[in-house]
Amino acid sequence: MRTCFPAVLVAAIAGCAFAEEPMDPSQDGPHAVGWRKVSVPDAKTAELAAAFYYPAAAAGERAAPAEGGPWPVVVFSPGGPAPSWQGYEDFGTRFASLGVAALVVAFGDRPADQRAVQFAAAREWLEKKTSEKGWFLEGKLDLKRALAGGHSRGGAAAMIAAADAKKWAGCVAVGPALREVPPKYATPTFVIGSPEDQTLPALYDGQKKPRWLLVVEGMDHFMNPEPKRAVVLKYCAGWVAARALGQAEMKTWLAKEAEKDRKAGVLKEAKVEE
User: Fold this and answer.
1) What is the CATH number of the domain that holds 177?
2) Which of 50, 95, 102, 148 could form a disulfide with 162 if both were Cys (CB 3.0 to 4.6 A apart)?
3) CA dist 87 to 61, 151, 225, 253, Å?
């Protein structure tokens, strides 16, 4: 086990020791969450089933959006063959509760490099829809603060897609099934996974700063057992809030939390370079 916290980050942590604590990303945030089933155009011919989670006036399916915005967006790909968007409702809900809309897309049984193309198509669709008169989230989405995300094969696809730093402000990858980062990769990326995910150190080493790597002790590639999934969700949600919403205090809190969890044995490894 080793932890890499540069001196500048340690100093920042010390300087913020008495600052107000940010909201705890291990719990849902201050926003009620609405969600809707939507169909996202495929980059080829088909339509892809998806679920959209967003800050709402009240919780529930097809709820009216909350006042305010525009909100950043995470486009998220499930793992494996991704036949359905279901199974990642907790990620979509947590992100939206913190003020970041989330589109979870059933990208289908394609290799990661082919699925990565669908990320760009989904982002373009969102950009078009939020400018469309009468759409339920008209004017509510900020695609300049779009992040790519995913789990396993979906995490690999997210990193491949996020290599286009002009389209993606960041990437959150859970156990990405990827051997190496794409050439000239420079997108801020948060990587978290299990000890089974043996390529994680190489993915971290191949990135430029800012970069994060957390390895959850006692967790398998599928985020089991359930308490371990909660650890992943806490860190992913906190990092998304920090990056997409510009919450410097959340970034500092996460670095401190990671070091605490490493010492407690919750994390096997924690490497942070900002």
Assistant:
1) 3.40.50.1820
2) 148
3) 16, 11, 15, 28
